[in-house]
Amino acid sequence: MTPKHRFKFKNALYTIDATVIDLCLSVFPWAKFRKTKGAIKMHCLYDHSGALPSFVTITDGKKHEVTVAKEITFPLFPDSIVSLDRAYIDYKWLNSLDENGVWFVTRAKSNIDYVVTGQHPVSGKGVRKDHAILLSGPRTKNHYTKELRLIEFYDEETNKSLTFLTNNMKFAASTIAAIYKSRWQIELFFKWIKQNLKIKSFLGTSKNAVMTQIWVAMSYYLLLTYIKYQTKYAHSLLTLNRLIREMLFERKNLIDILTLKSERLLAVQDEPLQGVLF
Fold this sequence. Notes:
alpha+beta; 10-stranded mixed sheet; globular
């Protein structure tokens, strides 16, 4: 069983985002992104319970995030919460989430047209405004006709004022801000897999070879996470990754490796590792 997300509410919490995987256009001509640049894009539904990708799809680099979101059906269940960046603001699509009972939290665009229909009590550190609104743009008011919530929040860490848009009228404004802030965990996930799962350099140059390597990397990540949680391994996923990598062709019991004492695991920071595992 994977650990739950850090929030007190029981709703499932997800983030939808995408990351660009750069490719050399002269080597991967099928992956044309810009005039002199190649790329593909990985779109991911990230489950904060267990820090796992629960859905992944790969497109060409030019495919816009919200286009993919509208073309496929992310496995989001009623009463779940999903955080999104502004690239996913399409009011027809947000309306479809609402109709399916999904709560969303995103950053409001600076040019949003709206009228204030009510006020929520302003409470919580950093909360400056908490309005109930209706969209009033010529097109947007027809694409999303129900009330939304607009929250202005001051982030002391970044010294910035942020404006959030959500269809959740129940949670505290500070909780809404914290939900959006947790979205950056998917950025850490993208960074981790690019640095540690070798999906920045590829063994083959065909589209099939690249896709195969990415899906193998994703499968390995899921297996690695499964081992960590099922064995209650106390150290980092990176350490576990390095231990398994070093002992892959050694006849060693995996449980023995996972139960090494902490003083021996300190040697994981230094190469080579083999000497400490005997």
